[in-house]
Design goal:
This protein has about 240 residues and is mainly α. The protein has eleven helices and three strands; from the N terminus they run αβααββαααααααα. It is globular and about 55 Å long.
Length: about 240
């Protein structure tokens, strides 16, 4: 986390909190102190309050009247719904994008997988997630369907990818990265049906595995929380 220095304070606070939630720096059920967040990010309370409302609409936090905000707990239903919806959206994306894909697209996707593997070997799960999302975003963008892209973005794929990496931490980030090779192979094939089936398997199988782990264990480990209270002043 770092102080916000942009004029668009509300947007920046939303993005900082969204990332902290996705990375597990803010745990499910964690209370968010408006004053602590404002001090940590170097802004007034107003954009923080507005950000809490935005994040509530996105399903990431709960705002309780007279009690403040807290990070919304992840449920089995959340994961089931998000993976099934994402699979449906990306099936459509591939149907539309497949005729448009060229060698330059395949080269870009291949580079992204190699970069994912490099980040995994460097023990950088956040880097893996960013590249994973970039891989899927490239496909959705090549569908050339603005409403589809907007809908895909509104389900916050980075948050769910972070959560998948956390829940499947025993598998390791390299496992997540290397699962993209069969999907790329299917995209290269002339069969749209094969590509759609590969995308469905890619998303639904990892979602089912994450749900099984979530069902069989307690909450996955998370990093230390940064925003429980303001950092101590040093003079």
């Amino acid at each position: 986390m770092k102080p916000v220095n942009s004029s668009s304070y509300r947007h920046m606070v939303v993005e900082q909190l969204r990332e902290a939630i996705a990375l597990g720096e803010l745990a499910p059920g964690e209370r968010l102190n408006e004053g602590a967040v404002a001090k940590r990010l170097g802004v007034s309370a107003t954009p923080v309050r507005e950000a809490f409302r935005d994040l509530e609409q996105a399903g990431l936090v709960e705002v309780v009247p007279h009690r403040g905000a807290r990070v919304r707990s992840l449920t089995r239903r959340d994961m089931s719904e998000i993976y099934s919806l994402r699979a449906t959206l990306e099936q459509l994306a591939i149907r539309l994008a497949h005729p448009n894909l060229e060698e330059a697209d395949f080269s870009r996707l291949e580079d992204l997988i190699h970069e994912m593997e490099d980040k995994a070997r460097q023990d950088d799960p956040a880097g893996v997630v960013q590249l994973d999302v970039a891989f899927h975003r490239h496909i959705v963008e090549r569908a050339d369907h603005q409403l589809l892209l907007k809908t895909w973005e509104e389900i916050h794929p980075s948050r769910w990818t972070y959560l998948t990496v956390r829940v499947l931490s025993e598998r390791g980030s390299l496992y997540i990265a290397q699962r993209h090779w069969p999907l790329l192979d299917a995209l290269r094939s002339p069969s749209i049906r094969s590509a759609v089936e590969a995308a469905t398997e890619h998303i639904e199988a990892i979602g089912a595995e994450a749900i099984r782990v979530l069902d069989s264990t307690e909450d996955p480990p998370v990093a230390d929380v940064f925003l429980r209270q303001p950092p101590p002043d040093h003079h």
